[in-house]
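Supplementary notes for students who missed Thursday's class. We covered one full example, reproduced here. Read the sequence, then the structure, then the short commentary at the end.
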Amino acid sequence: MKKLICPLILILCAAHLFADRPLVRDIQARAGNGKKVRITWQLPENPEPALYNLLLYRTTEQISSYGQLRGLEPVATLTPDRAGYTDQLEDLRDYYYTVISETSAGPYDLVLLSFNSTITSVHLITKKVVEQPEEKAEYETMYPDGTLRKTPLPYLDIIEGVGSEPLISDKTASKVTSLTGGNSKATPATILTPYIFEEDLVSPDGGDAYLLFEILKTSFVTKKYKETIDKLNHLIGTNISIETRNRACFYLGEAQYFNHNYEDSVKSFVKVQSAFPNLSQKWLEAALDRI
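Structure (token representation):
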């Protein structure tokens, strides 16, 4: 209890002591709406000497002595009858405010915390912006000539089964049929059949051509394409003739194609495109259609 009474007595004594001094007291600073900060204080009743102006300072540190204000410009110079001011802030930093009384004898260079200098800082209050969901437009999207729709139109079965009711008119069906060349549904790319060069149809006497023939006979012809890929990669990595290497690379592309490794198949056919231009082009297009 004694601890609470002592500060109260000191404050009352100070208020009485400085009642006739040109010193404002009970300064308060509160954040308002937007960028505004409201500073208020109480004016002295009968100051001696009389007040001439009130200088309001804004600082980023607490001011407890007049020396801290030297060299600073006040944010506002107010008439002696003003007991408040609204400041505009442009950032979110903490600020302190001090009011110095200017008299005919010069500035009254006394600074007392809670009298003419704020004890606590003040800063702007930020508002949390809540993003509103974008409203969907209630209108039909228009597609200029030559512009594709974002989502394709549903497939229309133009050729109906026997006894079923037509889904569209005969006139419309005729127009669509003419545009699609008579095909009502897209035809998927045809899977190619395995190709073997004439040189590899008969077993050679020996050499690297014989090794290639054995791979074709035991793995490729029997549709063991994964096994074919492994054996051909091993053969290509050895010292074989350029002719055998080209055919092995071509068979490798075929095996990769039938094993659904279409990207690898494309790479293999590109390597032998100069050796077998027309044939490689055919298989390249077939593999690309599957990617």
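Commentary. The CA atoms of residues 157 and 184 lie 7 Å apart. The radius of gyration is 47 Å. If anything here is unclear, bring it to office hours.
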